[in-house]
Structure formats: C-alpha cells, structure tokens
Recover the amino acids of this structure.
C-alpha cells in the first residue's frame, strides 16, 4: 500500500503548538504591572486545577510557562526624575492639535487603545526623557509632540 493512503493518527495533521513569544530586552515593569502578572499567574493556576480537558490543559500550561517567565524576569523600573517622562509616568501631550494623556508602562501592562503604551513603543521612546514644556521629534517631524504635563 502506498504511503499516501496511510494515516497513523490525526495528531500529525494538526498545527504545531509553539511557546508564546517573549519580547527581547529587559522586562521592565511598574508596580501595577508586577501585580497584574501575579494575578495572571494565580488565575491560570486556578484554571489548571479546575480544567479536565487535556487539550485545554496543554494551552493553559503553555500560558503559565509564559507568565512564570515574565514574573521571574520582571524588573521594577526605576522611578523617573521629577518632571521627566519615564516608565511609570503619565504624560499629557499635544499632537496634531489634539491633547491626550499617555501612560508609559511595561510590555505586559500595555493597552494601546487605553493610551497605556509599552516603554519600547516608538511613541513612548520619543517621550522618555522629555520634560514639560519641551517639544520632541516623532514620525519625522522635529516638533511633532508638545509635552504639556508629566505626572
């Protein structure tokens, strides 16, 4: 019989399961971000205890490996100097005539839709180190962003 007609199991036709990717570089976090990672670990551990489906357990255990890694590699970011934008800062800016307030946070804490940007994002990198009253370059323009206030 031809090998083309042989099928040992359904497993050989499934997509491979890869580990969740971890961003390169340091895992800098805010105190809130560290607490969120801990909550995520606790939630997944509770879900594993309650889960009975083997495939769901595989996914949950993969997720737990990711969050355990993030928890063990987390480094609390040093507080920025007073009046200077940094990780943990809330920065009120004016861009393209519109004001918005951006929180600079760790990668796992980021929610771009809620203006919580990872410190590694291009906009956050442009803001880090800036002081209130300054204008900073972004997206090819030298004075694209006006820093209004830093908290």
């Amino acid at each position: 019989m031809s090998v083309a007609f042989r099928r040992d199991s359904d497993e050989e036709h499934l997509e491979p399961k890869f580990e969740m990717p971890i961003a390169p570089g340091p895992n800098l976090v805010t105190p809130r971000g560290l607490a969120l990672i801990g909550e995520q670990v606790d939630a997944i551990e509770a879900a594993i205890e309650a889960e009975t489906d083997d495939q769901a357990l595989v996914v949950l255990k993969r997720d737990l490996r990711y969050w355990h890694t993030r928890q063990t590699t987390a480094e609390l970011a040093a507080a920025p100097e007073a009046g200077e934008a940094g990780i943990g800062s809330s920065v009120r800016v004016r861009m393209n005539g519109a004001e918005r307030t951006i929180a600079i946070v760790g990668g796992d804490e980021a929610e771009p839709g809620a203006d919580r940007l990872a410190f590694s994002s291009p906009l956050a990198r442009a803001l880090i180190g800036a002081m209130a009253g300054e204008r900073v370059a972004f997206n090819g323009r030298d004075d694209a962003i006006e820093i209004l206030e830093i908290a």
